[in-house]
Design brief:
With 199 residues, the chain is of the alpha/beta class. It is built from 8 helices and 5 strands; from the N terminus they run H-E-H-E-H-H-E-H-E-H-H-E-H. A 5-stranded parallel beta sheet has the order 2-3-1-4-5, sandwiched between helices. Helix 2 crosses helix 8 and helix 4 packs parallel to helix 5. The mean pLDDT is 95.
């Protein structure tokens, strides 16, 4: 990091911003295997929150790689940097009083812990949602044909096949998508947000 820089604080406090905008910021961090349902649930939740007149914005793993993270691959070092950047970006959204929804495989516990610490150090809410589906189920879904390619050796470092996925040990919300549908998943997350006074 550069040494000749100084943080320039704003003139609006987090409390004043939240009061003026009528909501508290937070990051809802969806993690799980490819095809577990992260993006689908995040899209539905974003729409639901907006209909409740809450400013929410979704950051999706594939979408971010078209721009901000287009210089990154899928090796472990690149995955670490991918999640580091998203942790920082989602923190900015949460600091602005938005509800940031991040849908990233984010396979490593240590990387998710860094994202959480970034938020908690800044006094921001971080909610980990484990979108859980067995490997057999996500392989059967395989909407992008990625598991088939990974099994054939056409994709290197594919999470769940040739690269590890470290499941969360204590997520705030645990959604088993082989046992519930999108509507129920959104309802459960909404209930959690309500209990925490975020909506």
């Amino acid at each position: 990091m550069a040494t000749n820089i100084t943080f320039h604080p704003g003139s609006v406090s987090a409390e004043e911003r939240g009061q003026l905008l009528g909501q508290k910021g937070a990051t809802i961090w969806f993690t799980g295997l490819s095809a577990s349902g992260k993006s689908t649930i995040a899209c539905a939740l974003e729409q639901h929150l907006l209909h409740l007149h809450k400013f929410a914005y979704r950051l999706d793993g594939d979408n971010i790689r078209f721009g901000l993270n287009k210089d990154l691959g899928f090796d472990e070092k690149s995955r670490n940097e991918n999640i580091r950047r998203i942790g920082e970006v989602s923190k900015l959204f949460a600091d602005s009083s938005a509800i940031a929804l991040t849908a990233f495989i984010s396979p490593y516990r240590a990387d998710r812990a860094v994202a959480r610490e970034l938020h908690e150090t800044a006094g921001l809410t971080f909610i980990e949602v484990f979108v859980d589906a067995p490997l057999s189920v996500v392989e059967q879904r395989d909407p992008k044909g990625l598991y088939k390619k990974a099994r054939a050796g056409e994709i290197k470092d594919f999470t769940g096949i040739s690269a590890p996925y470290e499941a969360p040990e204590n997520p705030e919300v645990h959604i088993k998508t082989d046992e519930c549908d999108v509507k129920e998943a959104v309802a459960r997350i909404t209930e959690y947000l309500t209990q925490k006074g975020l909506i």
